[in-house]
Amino acid sequence: TRYDKGLAKSRKGFGAKINALLANFRRVDEDFFEELEETLIEADVGFETAMKISDELQDEVKLRNAKSKSDVSDAIIERLVDIYENEGQDEDNTLHFASEGPTVFLFVGVNGVGKTTTIGKLAHRYQQEGKKVLLAAGDTFRAGAIEQLAEWGKRVGVDVVTKPEKSDPAAVVYDAVIKAKKEDYDILLVDTAGRLQNKVNLMKELDKIKRVITRELPDAPQEVLLALDATTGQNALTQAKQFKEVTDVTGIVLTKLDGTARGGIVLAIRNELHLPVKLVGLGEKMDDLRDFSPEEFVYGLFK
Ligand code: GDP
């Protein structure tokens, strides 16, 4: 699948543990479900989500009268995929584009989670598709962030709007939006600084950025994408809850999934945050970004 390389660690960790549990399977009893719950929690699925999966699986195993290893294995895989597909109405994991004029994606998330890298990767993707791509270096706070984005721009061959460090991010975004409109760019990707330490300021800053965008492009931003680092496990969930309070997040970019053996965080995000994962980062290079597909993900874990 498209996740072959990037899921190697999780396959050896999370996937192998579930497979081992099934390999030693004798019958479906309390011990079996206890071990399953432990395995899920260890894989960053989270307590609440692990219990839910386990409970639903118990019902299903009874209902189907599942007895064999393969019955149970099928039921587990279906449950994991279902967490995505049947939980609520907002399971749309596709990215949305403007029907007319420039599309704007705003990237939020704390330092180091991989926002800038994700923007670079997406710029590459759209550039390859023949779209006219513009980047806005709206993280004017973190030292080096502007240069890093400019570097990505050079590497993938797209334009970048910058201002000096400590400038008002909304001013950078304003310049970028005007340029995108005037020069017919197809897509504008906006980097921001994610300082959760001061939620009120962050909220104001993001509101201001959004207002600047909406004034010029009423339907934008089409996406507000929150980047979360998969290797930080339950911390990522806490961050996401805080960002949800600060701004309207439309989807998650789960980065560094290649760096964890506990890919279960994907399930926790779905079940506990009710936010769709739209993109996953599977490495540091420009090609290491995938659209998220729950089925491919789950099958990728256990194959
Ligand atoms: P930002 O502060 O949110 O903009 O984060 P950066 O984009 O600067 O990324 C921080 C570090 O994470 C950099 O060293 C990136 O190369 C690395 N990184 C970002 N995405 C991924 C990923 O999907 N996989 C791996 N292994 N590293 C990543």
From TrEMBL:
Its EC number is 3.6.5.4. The keyword Cell division applies. One of its GO terms (cellular component) is plasma membrane. Residues 276-289 form the SRP54-type proteins GTP-binding domain. It is an enzyme of class 3 (hydrolase). Keywords: Cell cycle, Cell division, Cell membrane, Cytoplasm, GTP-binding, Hydrolase, Membrane, Nucleotide-binding, Receptor. One of its GO terms (molecular function) is GTP binding. The keyword Phosphoprotein does not apply. Its main location: membrane. Belongs to the GTP-binding SRP family. FtsY subfamily. This is Signal recognition particle receptor FtsY. It comes from Ligilactobacillus apodemi DSM 16634 = JCM 16172. The gene is ftsY. The chain holds residues 136 to 438 of 446 of the full protein.
